[in-house]
Write a structure and sequence with these properties.
CATH topology of the largest domain: His-Me finger endonuclease fold
Largest sheet: 3 strands, antiparallel
Structural class: alpha+beta
Radius of gyration: 26 Å
CATH class of the largest domain: Alpha Beta
Strand order of the largest sheet: 1-2-3
Oligomer: single chain
Helix content: 25-40%
Number of strands: 5
Distance between the termini: 59 Å
Number of helices: 5
Order of helices and strands: HHEEEHHEEH
Low-confidence stretches: none
Number of domains: 2
């Protein structure tokens, strides 16, 4: 534990329990986890009457997440860069819980089928996020304006100018 943080926590514990000996304070507020002997921790009772332990996590244990820079020449208002920004959005969505839920919603809405080739979209085949009304032409990021396509189908849509329609549920199902 960083020495300054440890000192601040120790002073807080001593102030909270001025008449208790150091060993009691150490046993109440600090524990050992692996090789780290001074881990600040506490516990509470859950609604079911069980003890829930909490501990202060070190910043060094937080994984580093690298971000991809946007290409300097990329312009979100230029239709030629539309597929580049759609791929970036797909990667961003796959890396967040909210984004994964949105992708799952689109996948279920399409019943797992690519609207271009009518084949299943799986983890193995991969997928790209496609905007029906391109963002460069005023389209939004809402689920109503997006569909999932296979990467190859997505390239065909942009290179050949194919028209993609959102699949609609059939009546009676």
């Amino acid at each position: 534990m960083d020495h300054a943080i440890f000192q601040a926590l120790w002073r807080w514990a001593k102030c909270r329990h001025p008449n208790k000996p150091p060993g009691w304070i150490r046993q109440k507020y600090f524990t050992r986890v692996a090789d780290d002997r001074w881990v600040f921790h506490g516990s509470t009772l859950t609604s079911k009457g069980k003890t829930q332990d909490y501990r202060l996590i070190r910043l060094a244990y937080t994984p580093i997440k690298r971000h991809t820079k946007v290409k300097a020449e990329a312009n979100p208002y230029d239709p030629e860069w539309e597929s580049y920004f759609e791929v970036r959005l797909g990667v961003k969505m796959a890396n967040s819980l909210r984004g994964r839920r949105s992708l799952l919603y689109l996948w279920r809405e399409q019943k797992g089928i690519c609207p271009v080739c009518q084949q299943p979209i799986t983890k193995l085949t991969g997928w790209h996020n496609h905007h029906l009304v391109w963002r460069s032409k005023g389209g939004s990021d809402s689920a109503a304006n997006r569909v999932l396509l296979h990467p190859n189908c997505h390239r065909q849509v942009h290179s050949q100018g194919l028209d993609v329609a959102k699949p609609r549920p059939q009546k009676g199902r």
